[in-house]
Amino acid sequence: MLNQTASKRPLARKLVARIKPNSVISEQYRTIRTTINFSLPGNEMKTLLFTSASKEEGKSTTSANMAVVFAESGKKVLLVDADMRKPTLHHTFNLNNHIGLSNLLVGKGELEQSVRDSGIRGLELLTSGQVPHNPAELLDSPVLDQLVAEMKERYDLIIFDSPPILSVTDSKILANKCDGTVLVVNTGKTEKQSAIKARDSLATSRAYIVGVVMNNYKLSKDHYYSHEYN
Amino acid sequence: MESTFNMKEFFKNLKKRLPLIIAMTVAFVAVAAAVSYLWMKPVYQASTQILVNKAPANAQEFSMQDIDTNLQLISTYNVIIKSPAILTEVINELGLNETVQSLNERIEVSSIEDSQVVTLEVEDGSMQQAVLIANTTAKVFEQEIRNLMRVDNVSILAPATMPASPEPVKPDPLFNMAVGAIIGFMLGTGLAIVLDQLNTTVRTEEDIDELLGLQVLGVVSPVGDLDRTDKPSKHTDRMELDENVEPDSVKTAARPKVGSTY
């Protein structure tokens, strides 16, 4: 018990919306939540994919924090780690990764038994499961469609964290199946050309791109976001 | 790679780098001013005019042919003035501590087309010295030409004079500063373009809008900024955290391991 709590601290640091709910960053996530809510065509958007052009742009951090703030707003949220190549969700919430999405996709286990409690009211988690050798094929199977349909019945919002769109095809498949896709951009790191390519790949996957989250955005002192309100 | 040159974009980028361009311009003007006023030594110029015209032996026989002859001679004289024959004499007479070559570089001989007047200009760090050299050169030339050409057709028309307040011809600080401003502006603009070309990353919300045509949902500050911007968490927050976050062990302990092999 003691060891677990100790090891949890550095891992959970990314989960800003949880550990520092009053911080500017948490407020920024809430702003994004509001913008997404207003961007929805109607109210039918139930599956939301977070992806980025390249690796390490902040997909997992953003999707985890967004899941937290969406849960905060009273939605019943499921956060799915669809990055079956480099899964991270179980690290963020300090879980094991014995069962998860990959297991469900090969027909092992039930959704109800596979989801995990996040410890946050309204937020449940589905880790990636053990790393399969054919993630793209698994995602492309009709099993995923059934699974998503089942998720939609049980949850108000399903957030998928996914691999980089320019590296592997997984995100394109997912983007096609999700109601909306959010592109995460690492400010000052993401190449413009990569961002354009990412957008174009999403367009060819017929994804609905909700918009862009600019991660690692250094605020200037007089920036309108930077002042704490309370 | 898509590379369309967009004028509007170009000026927008320049506008973004305006401080850099202004700084470069100001810096170059400052350097030009400093060099002009502090480092460059002033150079003064004295000029004397020499008339090349031989009074004909017979005043009634003054003809166009004489003038033509004189004009043709002028180009020869222009060379002779700057020849060592003259300049060595000038150096000796004035006791100058320099070579014929260096003196030659400071002397400019010119004549307006079809005119019999030759202008001799001398540059020197001192106005007085410039006047002296100009007049001595003219005088020596006038004397020597008799020996060299065996003619006596050169007379000093207007000797160089010492003005009351001599103005240096070089450096021209205003001109230098103007050149500095132009160079600084061009370098600044060039640097701005290079910097912009070098940085091909997404940096601003405008980039997203222009490049992707997508909506910016929001921005997220680096987590590193958290410590700076965040207040220490309040007691009530910590209580809430303790209440809601359960130890994972409770949830995962009883769960069977599924799907260990594919």
Automatic annotation (TrEMBL), chain B:
GO MF: protein tyrosine kinase activity
KW Phosphoprotein (keyword) present: no
Ranges of residues in domain Tyrosine-protein kinase G-rich: 141-194
Renumbered residue ranges of the record's region Disordered: 225-262
Cellular localization per UniProt: Cell membrane
InterPro entries per the UniProt record, alphabetical: Bact_polysacc_biosynth/exp, GNVR, LPS_length_determ_N
Domain Polysaccharide chain length determinant N-terminal as annotated: residue spans: 4-94
Pfam families: GNVR, Wzz
Residue ranges, compositional bias (Basic and acidic residues): 225-241
Keyword DNA repair tagged: no
GO cellular component, one term: plasma membrane
Span of the signal peptide: none
Membrane topology qualifier: Multi-pass membrane protein
Domain of life, source organism: Bacteria
Residue ranges crossing the lipid bilayer per the database entry: 20-40, 174-195
Keyword annotations from UniProtKB, A to Z: Cell membrane, Membrane, Transmembrane, Transmembrane helix
Family according to the record: Belongs to the CpsC/CapA family.
Listed name of the protein: Chain-length determining protein
